[in-house]
Structure formats: structure tokens, C-alpha cells
Amino acid sequence: MEDGFHLWSEKYDRNIDDIFAIQDEIALAITEQLKITLLEKDREKIIKTFTENAEAYEYYLKGRFHINRRGSFILTGLQFFKQAIALDPGFALAYTGYADASLFSAFYSFLAGKEVSSKPKLAAETAISLDSSIAEPYCSLGLYYTIYEWNWIEAKKNFLRSIELNSRYAQGYSFYGMVLLAWVEGKFEEAEKQGRIAIKLEPLSAIDHADLSWTLYMAHRFEEALAVAKTGIELDGNSFLSHRLAGLCFIALKRYAEAIDTLQYIVKISNRHQHALNTLIWANCGNGNIKEARKLMNELEERSITEYIAGTHFGISAAYLGDTEIAFSYLEKAYHDHDPIIIQIKYSPFVPALLKSDPRFQNLVDRIGFP
């Protein structure tokens, strides 16, 4: 308590194989000591075991840890979820983790959106068929319908179902607020409310701070967004998204030297991930380092011969370098590839005026079908 009074403690000496039994025992002991009266369904939630396989559960937790760092860590997380499913094909949460990792693998441009296709949807639906009472797969479907099908009605329905099923699932609020309310609908005030609920639920989560920073950045509240991103960095020094948001905020605030330092760091820790390189191009252009920006652009063009380079960021980088025709050719490719990042373009401050003032940009926005 605030006055330092010790409410409860206990010692548990058990074999590690009994980890799930220990969790149940501790959870119920705490509620007893705090005199919480539980309805039967609440008690069931507290002691619910999602898998009897401790190794599968460990792989699931490792998968969540890695994908929450974003960037290249997503691919590591994806492998952990595959291993969890292999060990326990009835582990619903493992399928949800796989769905999220698959969604992120295209969002972070390891694959074209059209290549990911229906894999995340099928994985989330498998999770629901195994356990329809958990919130996570509905959140995954909300994300899927938003960034892949551009079906805003189904997206909202699934996000709200996720929150209804578990009002303490922080990522449900984060994704609903950032992705649908902020990126798609431009409802920044409501999106911020959702993001702050997530942080209240998970105050030590770097990714929830990064997601709220995105919302504030989209609302052009750059100083506030930067402060939240810095908190995310303090919580996890390797948080790709927190660092990238800090870099984007520095660019928006015209603090280009700080942006370049920040973005060079995530270029290093992410094995030169294309999102980091593109954002570094924008920072260098802002700082007048056109030669360095061209060098980075050339690197991405060379890599596009042997690996997938997403069109949205590539097009925006071309626009920063003044190559309007090339920019729109890349954006058109992004549209046909179903590049998930393209849903950010309507409200994002990183889209340069050169693009926004061109009638082709509004045509692209109209074809995506923003509400």
C-alpha cells in the first residue's frame, strides 16, 4: 500500500513442472487475502489453463515478447509460435500469436500483403474454434479486417468484441485506438482514450507506449508523442517502434540531428530494416543531406531486386527526394500489393506536401475507401 503496509506474502516451493498449478494457487490466494468475492465465471478466468504443455507456453511467451519489439524481431516471434502450435495443436493462444505475427510480417514489409493472404484470418478463426471465450483472436481479426481487407465495419465489430470479452486485454484497446480510430477514421481524441486505457492496464509495456505515441503523432501533437515514445524506450531499449516514433517526432519537430542519431541506432539493431532506412532518408532530406539520402535510396533499390521492398514508404522516400512520378509508381504498386502501411497515408504527418497536393493522391485515398 501507499503507506508501506504489507498486505500479503507467501512462499511457494514447487517443481517447475507444476507452473500452472502454482499460478492458480497464487491467484486464488491473493483474491482470498484481499477479500475479493468472485463470481464463478470470474474464478474460472483466473485459474484458466490454456495449455498443459509448459514448453509450448514458454514458446508462446517468447513469441509475444519478440513480436512486441516489432521490426526484425517479428520473424523470431513467428518461429516461436510455430513451435508452440507443433507442441500443442489445441493451444488457442498460440494460433492467435501466429495470426498476429503473420499480420506484422506483412506490416513490417517482410512480405507483400497479398502474399500473407488469409493466413492470419484462418489462424485467428482456428483459435476461436478452440476457445471462443478469449479476446485475443477477435483483436487479431479486427487488425486483419483493417489492414488487409479495408473492411472497417467488420474490423470495428471484432475489436469491440475483443474488448467485451476481456476488458483487461491492453492490446485490444491499443490496436482499436491506433489502427482503426486514428489511422483510418482520424478520430484522434477517442483513439487517445483507448491508448491510455491500454497503458493504465500495462504501464510497463513499451509497445503500448509506442502505439499511443503513434496516435499522438498522427494528431500532430509531436512533443507529447515524443515524450511517450521516450518512455517506451526507457521500458525497452531495443523497442524498434518506440525508437522509430521518436525519430518521426524529431523529424516533425525539425530536430533532424536527433532524428538521424535515433534512426541510425534502429538501422543497426534491426539489421538495416527498410522502415528504419526509409525514415532515415526522410530525416536526411530534412537536414539537407541529399547525398546520404540518395545513397540509402540506392541501397533499397538494389535490395528490391532480391527482396520485397514495400511501395508505400518507398514512394514517400522518392517524394522527399523530389521524384514525384517515381513516388506515384511505387504508391500504385503498394495499392496493388495491398501493402498494409498504405492505410496510414490519409492522416500521417510523414506524407510530404508534394504528394498531398497532387490529385493522384486524393484518387488513391478514394480508392482505398476511407470512411
Describe what you observe in this structure.
With 371 residues, the chain is mainly alpha-helical. Among the domains are: 1-49, no CATH class; 255-339 and 353-371, Serine Threonine Protein Phosphatase 5, Tetratricopeptide repeat, CATH 1.25.40. 70% of the residues lie in helices and 0% in strands. It has 21 helices and no strands. It has helices at residues 19-33, 40-47, 54-67, 73-87, 92-107, 113-116, 119-130, 136-147, 152-165, 170-184, 188-201, 206-218, 222-235, 240-252, 256-269, 274-286, 290-303, 311-320, 324-337, 353-356, 359-368. Helix 4 runs antiparallel to helix 5 (92-107), helix 5 (92-107) runs parallel beside helix 8 and helix 14 (240-252) packs parallel to helix 16. Mean pLDDT is 89; it is low at 1-8 and 26-31.
